[in-house]
Amino acid sequence: MDEFDIDAEYEKYLASEPGAGFDSKGLGLRAQKKLLGKMSSKKIAKVFIDDTTARVLDNAYRILKDYMPAKKDADKILKYVIKTVVKIGILYRNDQFNADELKIAESFKQKFHSVAMTVVSFYTVDFTYDKNFLAHSVEECRELLQQLVKRHLQDKSKSRIDIIFETFNDPTLMDIIFTVDGKYKDNMDKITTDMSTLMDEGNL
What we know:
- The chain has 204 residues and is mainly alpha-helical.
- It is 76% helix and 0% strand.
- It is globular.
């Protein structure tokens, strides 16, 4: 892995912002994005993601690894999820979102919290699963997230967000997950327990 060269990045930053002079926030943001691109998903997760969220991702990965055609497909989705979460976190911590985007972020947070509550409810209460309702709610989350990152992420990153949501919004996968005593019961028991913990702590 090549080392991050702060001097080189500083020169690139000045070249991209002619006449702007030194901007520590801009250079710091560039540095964080550059470092992110050089870190493995496992290292990123250890630095940026709490233990409970990491367990949710681990169990979701185990489900995808079994469900998807190849292990590398599940690896790819987990990598996309982690890097997307971290990129948005970096943008937020560096005050990159404007007032309108912060309103979108709050709407996304509320919608995602609602989806999490729905998932826990559908899984823990037999025969409440409503595939169309859940699919629509997940799609609303995707649309809000795309609005949030529209100004900030490259097309490749935006397409990865779509891939993430398409994967988890797969109707066949949903049917299997919410089948009473289905094949992924052990994983879903752990996921819903940890999701409930995250919601109780105000972290989801």
